[in-house]
């Protein structure tokens, strides 16, 4: 497990170690099963194309979960997310081509709060496009 | 959307109990690539001060979604044919979900609006143990109907 981050070592502007995460069609199917979300938009190209998407799209909650991972891998404690919010602003198409999509995740400390907590602004990019809006987390540090 | 739909302030009382298993936490953690041993190893969880393995932060949505999707797609809301799209999510835990938790969801309708010809519904899933201990609030926004300008998952 990563060392837990000490509040005193963090300042406004501190950047979290970025992550690049591949998302494949089989990963979507796996998430669908684990989360019990069987909306066909997330595994069927036919359904996704009827709805105007080029291919099946990732579950918004999977993208949010990956953004959460960015934070908790940094903080060292999966229970450190105290308040976590996102808007799902753009789809993440995941073509069934054996490659899928690639998400770039970044986070920056924007505020130091009471109680050894910090606010982190999050950014998730797919092909250079931001797919989450107003994504932020309040994180409990040591 | 049905004309007699519930409005802001409406509360759906607590549901049947959802019992959280170690296996479900492991399955969910693996599906999101969560590598912390605290999701699978009770000793690692204990090192972080938790009495049992803990679930990732977004896990509670799974518990709430079982309830909210049934309600939104049911006849009362009539959104099944309007393809409700999840447009925003906030998760505010009091503590992480742990294996062995027996959870009940109370669903609150926070707001119902019309925006650019579409229905925007905000709900709060209040998750407590069967003994009443608060675990987490999940705030969900869904948009349905109107011009098909879906953006999301």
Question: Main beta sheet of chain B, described?
Answer: 6 strands, antiparallel
Give the amount of beta strand of chain A, in percent. 25-35%
- Could you name the CATH homologous superfamily of the domain at 11-21 and 56-144 in chain B? Hotdog Thioesterase
Please identify the top-level CATH class of the domain at 7-23 and 59-140 in chain A. Alpha Beta
Biggest sheet features of chain A: 6 strands, antiparallel
Order of helices and strands of chain B: EEHHHEEEE
Annotation keywords:
heterodimer; A: 142 residues; alpha+beta; Thiol Ester Dehydrase, Chain A; six-stranded antiparallel sheet; 23% helix; B: 153 residues; 20% helix; HotDog_dom_sf (chain A); MaoC-like_dom (chain A); Dehydratase (chain A); FAS1-like dehydratase domain-containing protein (chain B)
Description:
The complex is a heterodimer of chains A (142) and B (153). With 142 residues, chain A is an alpha+beta fold. Chain A has a domain at 7-23 and 59-140: Thiol Ester Dehydrase, Chain A (Roll), CATH 3.10.129.10. Chain A is 23% helix and 33% strand. Chain A contains 3 helices and 6 strands, in the order E-H-H-H-E-E-E-E-E. Chain A has helices at 25-35, 45-50, 60-75; strands at residues 19-23, 81-88, 101-113, 117-126, 129-130, 132-140. In chain A, strands 1, 2, 3, 4, 5 and 6 form a 6-stranded antiparallel β-sheet that branches. The longest helix of chain A has 16 residues, at 60-75. Chain A starts with 18 loop residues before the first strand and ends with a strand. The model of chain A has no long low-confidence stretch (mean pLDDT 95). With 153 residues, chain B is an alpha+beta fold. Chain B has a domain at 11-21 and 56-144: Thiol Ester Dehydrase, Chain A, CATH 3.10.129. Chain B has helices at residues 22-31, 42-47, 59-73, and strands at 11-12, 18-19, 85-93, 102-115, 118-129, 134-144. In chain B, strands 1, 2, 3, 4, 5 and 6 form a 6-stranded antiparallel β-sheet that branches. Chain B starts with 10 loop residues before the first strand and ends in a 9-residue tail after the last strand. Classes of the chains: A alpha+beta (142), B alpha+beta (153). Chain A binds chain B through residues 1, 21, 27, 30-31, 33-37, 41-42, 51-53, 57-66, 68-69, 72-73, 77-79, 81-92, 134, and chain B through 24, 27-28, 30-39, 44, 47-48, 50, 54, 56-58, 61-62, 65-66, 83, 86-93, 95-96, 139, 141, 148, 150-153.
């Amino acid at each position: 497990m990563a060392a837990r981050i000490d509040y005193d070592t963090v300042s406004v502007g501190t950047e979290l170690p970025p992550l690049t995460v591949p998302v494949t069609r089989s990963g979507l199917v796996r998430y669908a099963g684990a989360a019990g979300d069987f909306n066909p938009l997330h595994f069927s190209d036919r359904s996704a194309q009827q709805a105007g998407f080029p291919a099946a799209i990732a579950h918004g909650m999977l993208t949010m979960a990956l953004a959460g991972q960015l934070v908790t891998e940094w903080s060292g404690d999966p229970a450190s997310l105290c308040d976590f919010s996102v808007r799902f602003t753009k789809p993440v198409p995941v073509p069934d081509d054996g490659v899928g999509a690639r998400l770039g995740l970044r986070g920056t400390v924007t505020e130091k709060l009471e109680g050894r907590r910090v606010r982190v602004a999050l950014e998730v990019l797919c092909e250079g496009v931001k797919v989450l809006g107003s994504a932020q987390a309040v994180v409990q540090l040591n | 959307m049905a004309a007699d739909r519930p409005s802001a302030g409406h509360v759906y009382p607590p549901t049947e109990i959802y019992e959280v298993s170690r296996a479900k936490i492991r399955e969910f953690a693996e599906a999101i690539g969560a590598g912390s041993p605290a999701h699978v190893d009770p000793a690692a969880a204990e090192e972080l001060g938790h009495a049992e393995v803990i679930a990732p932060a977004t896990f509670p949505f799974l518990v709430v979604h079982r309830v909210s999707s049934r309600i939104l797609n049911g006849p009362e809301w009539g959104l099944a044919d309007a393809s409700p799209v999840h447009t925003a999510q906030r998760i505010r835990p009091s503590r992480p979900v742990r294996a062995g938790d027996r959870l009940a969801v109370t669903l609150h309708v926070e707001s119902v609006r019309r925006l650019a010809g579409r229905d925007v519904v905000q709900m709060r899933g209040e998750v407590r143990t069967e003994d009443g201990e608060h675990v987490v609030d999940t705030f969900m926004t869904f948009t349905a109907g109107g011009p098909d300008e879906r953006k999301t998952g």
